[in-house]
Write a structure and sequence with these properties.
Layout (H helix, E strand, L loop, with lengths): L1 E6 L2 E4 L4 E9 L6 E7 L6 E6 L6 E3 L7 E6 L4 E6 L8 E8 L13 E2 L3 E6 L1
Amino acid sequence: QLQLVESGGGTVRSGASLKLSCVGSGRSFSNSVMAWFRQASGQEREFVAAISWGGSQQRYADSVKGRFTISRENVKNTVYLQMDSLQPEDSAVYYCSSNNFGILYTTDRQYDFWGQGTQVTVSS
């Protein structure tokens, strides 16, 4: 089991920045691919970003490329999502997730552990 707890969400104005954090506990965090997904009200959960266990590889959804940055600190069992130039369409519940397949999947069914989510709301 890997327990994941997200934090850092909030309400901001368009163009602002937020940094989300996700702390893992339980099974080895450093061996896991970590990812962020988001789910807006009434919509399906969608991939945002993923990072390899060592941090050398990242993958982003086209909608956030150039604005969001995923990173991790394995010594702190923490993965981050720096979100810049936020837009109203970025408003959603953001979820942290993990898989131990070693592949930066973009579909949620390949991720086996999930946090409870943190709300991000961007007003225009």
